[in-house]
Amino acid sequence: QVQLVESGGGLVQAGDSLRLSCAASGRYFSSYSMGWFRQAPGSEREFVAVISRSGGSTYYADSVKGRFTISRDNAKNTVYLQMNSLKPEDTAVYYCAADRSGGVVTIARPYDYWGQGTQVTVSS
Q1: Residues β-bridged to residue 11
Q2: How high is the pLDDT of residue 49?
Q3: DSSP for 46-100?
Q4: N or C: which terminal CB in the chain sees fewer CB atoms within 10 Å?
Q5: Who's near 86: CB < 8 A, 6+ residues apart?
Q6: What number of other Cβ atoms are within 10 A of residue 10's Cβ?
């Protein structure tokens, strides 16, 4: 079992930056691909970014491409999401997720473990 704990959310103004962190328990972090998803009120959970086991491959939703950067530190069992040029439409609860298969996937269903989420609110 893997536990994921997100942190770093908060209230910021449009144009500001935030860095989210997701700390994972257990010994097998480096064998999981890791994703970030978000869910706004009244909306379905949507894909934000994913990173491969080694960190060599990343993929982003079009809505965040060029503004967000996903990275990981396998020595620290942590994945990050650097969010720049934030917009009000980025407001959501952000979740990290782990995929045991190691696939670089952009839908929620294959992910095996999820964090509890961290709120990001961007004011205009």
Answers
A1: 121
A2: 98
A3: EEEEEE-SSS--EEE-TTTTTTEEEEEETTTTEEEEEE-S--GGG-EEEEEEEET
A4: N
A5: 12, 14, 15, 16, 17, 18, 67, 120, 122
A6: 13
Kindly state the tokens that stand for 109: 């269903």
- What is the length of the chain? 124
Beta bridge partners of 78: 23, 73
**12 CB-near residues (< 8 Å, 6+ apart):** 18, 86, 120, 121, 122, 123
- 103 SS3 class: coil
Per-residue model confidence (pLDDT) at position 1? 81
SS3 43: coil
What are the structure tokens assigned to 91, written together?
A: 């407001």
In tens, the pLDDT along 54-112 reads 999 999 999 999 999 999 999 999 999 999 999 999 999 999 999 999 989 999 999 99
pLDDT digits (tens, 9 = 90+) for 23-67: 999 889 999 999 999 999 999 999 999 999 999 999 999 999 999
